[in-house]
Amino acid sequence: MGIFSRLFNVGKAEAHSAIDKLEDPIKMTEQGIRDLKKDLDKSLQALAEVKALAIRSKRELNEQKSVAKNYEQKAILLLQKAEKGDLEMAEAERLATEALSRKEEANSNVVRAQEEVSKFDTNISQLDANVKKLKSTITRYENELRTLKARARVSSATQKINKQLSGIDSSGTVGMLEKMKDKVAQQEAMAEAYGDIAFENRSLDDEIDSTLSDSNVKASNALEELKAKMKNKE
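RE: above sequence
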């Protein structure tokens, strides 16, 4: 139980200190719960053993009560038989006295058995309360552990997202983007340079073909038509 008083009593400073020193609080808590379950198994076994003793004591109590009652009835029957003349009174009294002596022994056993039954009932009540407390504690700790696991996952994911958004871990990405920009700009410049070189290195045939292309021919025809209109206006 000691580890849980440290792990879950968050209001105490020593609890924080203990948790901070743990390498893995979740694993330690899981181990603590497993230990509690072992204690619960032992408590259940002890409870079953005490209940078995209580059952035997109650049986003995009932048996001794029956024995005491039987001896008392036998003593009565002996005296009644002597009164009827079927048995010498002295013999009847002797046997009745022995029967009553056995009755007292049985009564002593009744008292002892009753004390044992009371003691076992008290033990059963205490053990049963401990078992219920252990079960409740285990359930509460398991629920808290599930909550803590969920909170740990959420906080870890949130921390990663916030870390990325805050730019703490963005230097590498920004650096790669800048390098990519420089590379693309260099490639664009190289493409333009190669285009200029290709234009400068055109052959005479290339220039003639370009001049005689459909677009140039259409432009020349349009120019001639425009000149003819201007002359007509004069």
